[in-house]
Amino acid sequence: MKNVKDEFKELFDVILNINNLDDCADFFEDLCTIQELEKMKERLQAAKMLLDNKTYDEIIKTTKISSATLSRVSKCIQYGNGGYKKIINQ
Fold this sequence. Notes:
Blueprint: H1 4-7, H2 9-16, H3 21-31, H4 34-51, H5 56-63, H6 67-79, H7 83-88
Helix pairs in contact: 4-5, 4-6
């Protein structure tokens, strides 16, 4: 089975080459639907709130994220590769 980093290397390389906010917004607006961007934004907000020790109820009320998605974000923070913590705590 391919490593995610290998499988999506081209995509990750392109994202790493984005130089400014306008180019980033243009790229993601072309690449993703508004709904996909909205979901990514919600997950990021939820991850930030979880790392700030907010409760599930507070997060759901603030972000309108589903409990299933919030649970997935929480599991990624607890047992994943540390991606949220690396990026959010920069």
